[in-house]
Each structure stands twice: as C-alpha cells, then as structure tokens.
Amino acid sequence: MADETALPASPELTDAVFAALEDKAKLPAGSMIVLGILAGVYIGLGGLFATVALAGANDLPFGVAQVLAGLVFTVGLALVLIAGAELFTGNTLMAGPLAAGRLKASSASRALGIVYISDFVGSLLLAGVVLLAGVHEAGLDVPRSISARRSLTNRSARRSRAASLPTFSSVLLCGWPTPAGR
Question: Is 4 part of any domain?
Fold first, then answer.
C-alpha cells in the first residue's frame, strides 16, 4: 500500500501555497520588475515557437498542428518555472491569501500591478528584438521545393551579409536565455 503521508494534507498544502504567495507579495520592486520582464520574454518565446511551428504545419491535420503548437508553447512556461520568473497569471492566486485575510489588498495590488506591467514590457522587448532580427521575414524567399539543407545554406549566407543590428539581434535571441536564467 502506498504511503499516504508523502503529500501534505489539504490544509497544510493550502498554508504552504499561501505562505509562498505572501513571500512573493513582499519581494522588492526591483526584483519583481526584473523577474516580470523575464516572464514576459519567456512566454513571448513560447508564443514565437508556437507560431513558427504552425507556420510550417500547413500539410498537417488541424488537431495535430494545434497539439504541436501547444507542446512547443510550453517551453515558455518551463522557462518561467525554471528561472523563477514572475508571471501575472500565476500571481492572481494571491486572491486566496487575500480572501483569507493573510495578505493586505495594497500588497497584492502592488505585486499584481508591477508584475503585469513588467510582463508587458518583457513582451515588448522580445517583439522588438524579433523584429530587429528579421524573424518575421524568415522563409518568405524560400520556395517549398527547396531542400532544408539548401534553405539553411541560403539563410546562413544572408546572415553573413546582413547588417550588424539584425545579426546581433538574432544572436541575442539564440543565446540570451542561458545567462539570464542564472
């Protein structure tokens, strides 16, 4: 028979979640801003991955394409969890400790407001970098009949001739999550 004490009982679990949410509400504003911007970028990356996956899924059945997009979108959620970023939707759980009288309305409102704006700023930053990198133009000049290898070669050649800002932005998109998560 399985050990039923492995998971906390409902009241203890609720207490632990409420305590974590109370701690989130007490974070310094600077930390909330940085973690909120990271969350906005990470969720934006998940959305970008889903969009890219759907862009090449014309020949797949609708349901399969949607499942594929959903699976790659979760990369953004995983990045939020791994980095400990502050995502507005998760912070709306502060309604629980607020209703229980364990959190002041001013603290919850402060945290929700800062994180909401920071998430938005992060998404705008990612949108700007994506635009500067020319991601929106990817694949427009490559006919479907060209092999993936030739397409990659053509893209690499274009990048080597590209202006410095789009190239820098592309590199930033490829490599920045690693040091940002530390």
Answer: no
152: in domain: yes
Q: Domain residues for 98?
A: 28-180
Q: What is the pLDDT of residues 78-122, one digit of tens each?
A: 999 999 999 998 898 899 999 999 999 999 999 999 999 999 999
In a domain, 92, yes or no: yes
- Span 33-57, pLDDT tens digits: 999 999 999 999 998 888 888 777 7
Structural domain contains residue 159: yes
Which of 42, 141, 157, 24 lies closest to 92 in space, CA to CA? 24
Q: What is the pTM of this model?
A: 0.73
Distance CA 57, CA 9 (A): 45
Residues 6+ apart with CB under 8 A from 74: 46
Q: Is the Cβ–Cβ distance between 40 and 125 less than 8 Å?
A: yes
Q: Kindly report the CATH number assigned to the domain that includes residue 36.
A: 1.20.1080.10
Please state the domain count of the chain: 1
| Measured distance CA(150)–CA(156) in Å, rounded | 10
**Which residues, at least 6 apart from 112, have a Cβ–Cβ distance to it below 8 Å?**
88, 91, 92, 94
**In the predicted structure, residue 177 carries a pLDDT above the cut 90:** no
How is residue 132 written in tokens? 């500067």
